[in-house]
Amino acid sequence: MSAKxxxxxxxxxxxxxxxxxxxxxxxxxESVVIHKSGIEFRSPTPFNPxxxxxxxxxxxxxxxxxxCSGVVIACSGSKHTGYHVSLVFTGMxxxxxxxxxxxxxxxxxxx
Length: 111
Hints:
Thrombin, subunit H; eight-stranded antiparallel beta sheet; 8 strands
């Protein structure tokens, strides 16, 4: 995961959907940090490393929806405090990368 943070989650108004084979989470924007190569989020349930997930992001400015795949690379925490999950995007198309880049910059006011 890149150290450069693209987005603090509060710029996305729509819930962010993270879906795996056995679970589906609708995450509030405040619980997600978006990086250029993945996301980090808080979860009430743990995820095993290498779990494949689908992520759906919606721009607050209606720049479109991005749906991409990713893999959990880390999950730490406990059932009492919740879990911090790091997911890296895999196989993103150039178009999806461009949209994510535009979403992040427009939400920050740089675009």
